């Protein structure tokens, strides 16, 4: 695009777009890279992680605590039919945002997350594009059913859910565009599905590489859907599979597992809790099978796409396929278990007949290239800069 004709854009994010070590950072980075290449971009990082980021003429970082105080949350809760019911306005964020938008007239303003826009005190959303990612009403719905929360916290989320959904959708309808990770969360004409994609797609698998009985799970283990799902898997699925396949091994990758669960998992036969690993590719290379036993949470599970991008036999729960089920087909691209019995049967079958299942990752890998490549993402994002 000719620089002289480029739109002036502002990207406001709480995730450092220069990092790529988590799914959230990867999505931020993809949007940032597109905007940097196709617009005259300023970036405003409300640096909640306090990463060391050097400011430039177009990149501005502020170390800031954006979490509302208890009194601010209580005030927000009485504003029932307001965007501030979702999250309170943040004084410092608002001051910083106004400083930049008063100084420069932006054609487009992109926000990573709806809550970021609310905290910044945005009133006019006509030129605003919000990357919703995981829909707030889906997050609240998931929390209201999470066994990791106390009963009164689950009740609190359940009572807030209708107004969270009402106020969120009211705000998003007023935007120029909003982007969701799950296509099912698009509810109006200005909504666009922007799927999460794997950062790296490996070449087609070498058929000469021998398959093995090493099974892998990867995810941020302090995130409750991940540790709840893995705990269920080890207790109810792995405990049965290991009886028939004593030479199978389960490798759990990701930092932050609760201590009590980590201790329990490591007592299970052939379960290896690796925590954070420097080179994730090495673990992928050593495992032929990836499992995704996720039963709660909002948004989509990028770990499913990543496994197929790495040419792995992928076995997932029905819930984990959410958002991908119109493209990825059970028994064609991967195996989808509707219950524990199916998960056990699929694993036993794969472990007993490894050479029967390469067609799954061959088909799945082709789907990743066709539907979940960076080129596809840029094609979708290009719609948002078309004035």
TrEMBL record:
Keywords: Glycosyltransferase, Transferase
Entry-linked Pfam families: Glyco_trans_1_4
EC number: 2.4.-.-
UniProt GO molecular function: glycosyltransferase activity
SUPFAM superfamilies xrefs: UDP-Glycosyltransferase/glycogen phosphorylase (SSF53756)
Organism superkingdom: Bacteria
Protein name: Glycosyltransferase
């Amino acid at each position: 695009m000719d620089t002289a004709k480029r739109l002036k854009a502002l990207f406001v994010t709480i995730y450092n777009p220069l990092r790529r070590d988590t799914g959230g950072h990867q999505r931020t980075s993809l949007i940032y890279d597109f905007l940097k290449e196709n617009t005259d971009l300023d970036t405003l990082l409300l640096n909640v992680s306090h990463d060391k980021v050097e400011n430039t003429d177009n990149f501005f970082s502020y170390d800031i605590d954006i979490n509302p105080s208890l009194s601010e949350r209580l005030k927000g809760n009485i504003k029932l039919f307001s965007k501030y019911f979702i999250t309170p306005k943040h004084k410092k964020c608002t001051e910083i945002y106004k400083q930049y938008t008063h100084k420069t007239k932006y054609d487009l303003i992109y926000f990573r997350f709806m809550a970021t826009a609310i905290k910044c005190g945005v009133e006019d959303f006509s030129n605003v594009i919000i990357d919703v990612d995981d829909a707030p009403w889906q997050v609240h719905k998931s929390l209201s059913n999470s066994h990791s929360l106390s009963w009164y916290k689950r009740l609190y989320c359940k009572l807030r859910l209708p107004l969270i959904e009402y106020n969120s959708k009211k705000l998003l309808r007023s935007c120029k565009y909003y982007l969701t990770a799950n296509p099912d969360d698009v509810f109006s004409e200005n909504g666009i599905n922007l799927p999460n994609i794997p950062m790296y797609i490996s070449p087609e698998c070498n058929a000469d590489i021998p398959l093995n009985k090493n099974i892998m799970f990867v995810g941020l283990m302090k995130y409750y859907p991940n540790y709840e799902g893995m705990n269920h898997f080890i207790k109810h699925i792995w405990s049965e599979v290991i009886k028939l396949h004593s030479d199978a091994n389960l490798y759990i990758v990701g930092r932050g597992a609760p201590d009590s669960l980590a201790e329990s998992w490591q007592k299970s036969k052939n379960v290896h809790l690796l925590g954070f690993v420097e080179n994730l590719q090495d673990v992928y290379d050593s495992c032929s099978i990836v499992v995704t036993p996720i039963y709660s949470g909002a948004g989509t599970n990028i770990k499913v796409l990543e496994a197929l991008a790495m040419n792995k036999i992928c076995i997932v729960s029905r819930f984990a396929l959410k958002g991908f089920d119109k493209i990825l087909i059970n028994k064609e691209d991967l195996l989808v278990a509707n219950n524990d019995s199916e998960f056990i049967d699929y694993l036993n079958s794969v472990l007993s007949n490894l050479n029967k299942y390469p067609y799954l990752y061959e088909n799945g890998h082709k789907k990743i290239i066709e539907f979940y490549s960076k080129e596809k993402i840029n094609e979708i994002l290009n719609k948002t800069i078309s004035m």
